[in-house]
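Case study.
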Amino acid sequence: QQPVQSPQAVILREGEDAVINCSSSKALYSVHWYRQKHGEAPVFLMILLKGGEQKGHEKISASFNEKKQQSSLYLTASQLSYSGTYFCGTEWENYGQNFVFGPGTRLSVLP
Amino acid sequence: GAVVSQHPSWVICKSGTSVKIECRSLDFQATTMFWYRQFPKQSLMLMATSNEGSKATYEQGVEKDKFLINHASLTLSTLTVTSAHPEDSSFYICSAKQGAWETQYFGPGTRLLVL
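After joint prediction, the assembly is written out as follows.
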């Protein structure tokens, strides 16, 4: 079952913040976040494991609430380079190597 | 960081021909490699999971006789699209990971156009 991502698309001005959510109907072991630019392969951003992790890299951070079976990706003071489609990928508990991508959230950052 | 390469980047072929795509993990040994297909403006759809030395596990709806996967070593997996047709035109992406609970690293993708 594919995780649900929201919103489907978002348009920001440079410097604005955005939150992208990823939720699952099944208990999650991990959530992986990727960004894909048009015509390119996805690039790994970060992985969050169950235990309620929060991680961050520069102005991009994420949280994982295993009770709610959801993860959120936070982009602060967005830059033009943040434009792309953000996918979450989820691994369910007890399913080991199974990995399912969400439908993606298209983010456009305008000058 | 972990680097995965794919070859070729672009393929244009006639309908009915077979196309082989290679996926290599350059600086790590990949216990598992994955093959995805992505149509324009859509998410990546997993086609199959392959472990070195064993048969690939195909997702529902993916024809194993049409999409042949060989995972001959810990650093190489190949996908062969047999008797390709225009509807097989897509962006094919492989990924690889070292261990069961690690993240996947993606190759740059291969664009296939079948005329």
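Observations recorded in class. Chain A is about 0% helix and 55% strand. The CA atoms of residues 73 and 80 of chain A lie 17 Å apart. We will return to this complex in the next lecture.
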